[in-house]
């Protein structure tokens, strides 16, 4: 995943922010007025405009509608933009408060205090303070200022974003002459949050039944799901949110978590490879066949092509092999797409999909599979890549696996001449 290549959604974000800043055109001449009080006042107001705009766009981006995420390069990339806009908006709001305070100090301390702390009856200013306090409460832990946050606690804490945005809009609408666009953005943000938190659990999910829980190796299973209503339409490499409702689970009942699909798009059943990596994934190893689960999605754009006509290089390790299993299962026997897959595993006992992948390679001559075992050969090297795929630097590269593997391979590939735009990976942190 990279933010270096612009997507249609990026252009839309920039256009909305440009309209907001342009709409407040009367503030721009103040920046050249020469008066420190007026300059700081204008700077503070423009920072507030841009900060609230970013916060509202972050709220709109939380809608998580299947298909919409592809405008932004997939949901992991949209989530990265969401975090950047949220954090950037927060910093600009702090700059707004700081600049407004010092614009008053430029006149006198009394003016500064009156600007920041007016009488209680001035509800417009105090609503701004309430918005800031709530924003600090839900953003500081979210950006891991106090260590890594538990997934479910993070989701509950994020509910504070709704009242924070509401108080921020009260503050802005009561003080700004340019209220129509703020009102539209505010309504869109609350519609997105309302869909995400209230409606999508009931209207955005489909019901499925657990047909099988196939143990691949100890600690790794593949869930096989039957549709209650109709099969899911998706592409290879996409992922879904799974919510199990098996009350016998030790953890995770009723909680949604993202998992990559390992099935082929033409398979009426869904298959998801799941590795024991925490309480919820550990519990899913013993999911009861016949129990009910819900699926939301699909999301992602893992196999997006930036260099059509070139060969592909797939590098998968751990449970990150699942999008490549889905891709291999979707290959046609007469397909001519030139694909080289490197299966990175600790040793042969952890290459749990290798036999099946080799059978797909026998069926599809343009698809080749090579295993790389860390215990025998150490970390992947350029020499190994050149030996088994001499033209790897000219291919479009897809990475999925443990953070250590991805963090090792990315700089290795870039140093060999693979351009950023040809490098694809996905990270599921706090999706």
TrEMBL record:
The keyword Transmembrane applies. The chain crosses the membrane at residues 44-63, 84-117, 123-145, 179-195. It is a multi-pass membrane protein. Keywords: Membrane, Transmembrane, Transmembrane helix. This is Oxidoreductase. InterPro entries: FAD-bd_8, FAD-bd_FR_type, Fe3_Rdtase_TM_dom, FNR_nucleotide-bd, MRET, OxRdtase_FAD/NAD-bd, Riboflavin_synthase-like_b-brl. Residues 203-305 form the FAD-binding FR-type domain. It comes from Saccharospirillum salsuginis. One of its GO terms (cellular component) is membrane. It comes from the Bacteria. One of its GO terms (molecular function) is oxidoreductase activity.
């Amino acid at each position: 995943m990279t933010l270096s290549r612009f997507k249609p959604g990026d252009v839309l974000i920039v256009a909305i922010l440009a309209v907001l800043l342009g709409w407040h055109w009367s503030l721009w001449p103040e920046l050249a007025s020469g008066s420190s009080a007026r300059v700081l006042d204008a700077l503070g107001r423009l920072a507030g405009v841009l900060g609230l705009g970013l916060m509202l766009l972050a709220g709109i981006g939380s809608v998580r509608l299947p298909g919409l995420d592809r405008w932004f390069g997939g949901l992991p990339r949209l989530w990265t933009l969401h975090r950047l806009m949220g954090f950037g908006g927060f910093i600009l709001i702090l700059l707004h408060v700081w600049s407004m305070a010092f614009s008053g100090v430029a006149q006198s301390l009394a003016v500064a205090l009156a600007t920041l702390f007016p009488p209680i009856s001035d509800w417009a200013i105090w609503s701004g303070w309430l918005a800031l306090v709530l924003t600090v409460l839900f953003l500081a832990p979210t950006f891991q200022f106090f260590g890594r946050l538990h997934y479910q606690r993070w989701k509950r804490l994020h509910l504070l974003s709704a009242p924070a945005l509401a108080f921020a809009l009260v503050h802005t609408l009561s003080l700004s002459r340019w209220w129509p666009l703020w009102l539209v953005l505010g309504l869109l943000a609350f519609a997105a949050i309302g869909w995400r938190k209230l409606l999508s659990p009931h209207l955005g999910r489909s019901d499925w039944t657990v047909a099988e829980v196939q143990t691949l190796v100890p600690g790794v299973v593949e869930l096989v799901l039957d549709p209650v209503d109709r099969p899911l339409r998706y592409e290879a490499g996409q992922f879904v949110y799974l919510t199990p409702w098996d009350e016998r689970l030790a953890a995770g009942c009723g909680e949604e978590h993202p998992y990559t699909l390992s099935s082929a798009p033409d398979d009426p059943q869904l298959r998801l490879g799941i590795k024991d990596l925490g309480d919820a994934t550990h519990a899913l190893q013993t999911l009861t066949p016949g129990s009910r689960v819900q699926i939301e999605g699909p999301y992602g754009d893992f196999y997006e092509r930036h260099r059509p006509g070139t060969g592909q290089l797939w590098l998968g390790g751990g449970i990150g092999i699942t999008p490549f299993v889905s891709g291999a299962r979707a290959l046609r026997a007469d397909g001519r797409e030139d694909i080289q897959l490197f299966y990175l595993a600790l040793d042969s006992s952890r290459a749990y999909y290798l036999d099946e992948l080799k059978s797909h390679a026998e069926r599809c001559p343009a698809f080749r599979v090579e295993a790389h075992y860390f215990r025998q050969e150490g970390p992947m090297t350029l020499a190994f890549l050149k030996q088994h795929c001499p033209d790897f630097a000219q291919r479009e590269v897809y990475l999925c696996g443990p953070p250590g593997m991805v963090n090792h391979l990315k700089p290795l590939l870039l140093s060999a001449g693979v351009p950023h735009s040809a490098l694809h990976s996905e990270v599921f942190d706090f999706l």
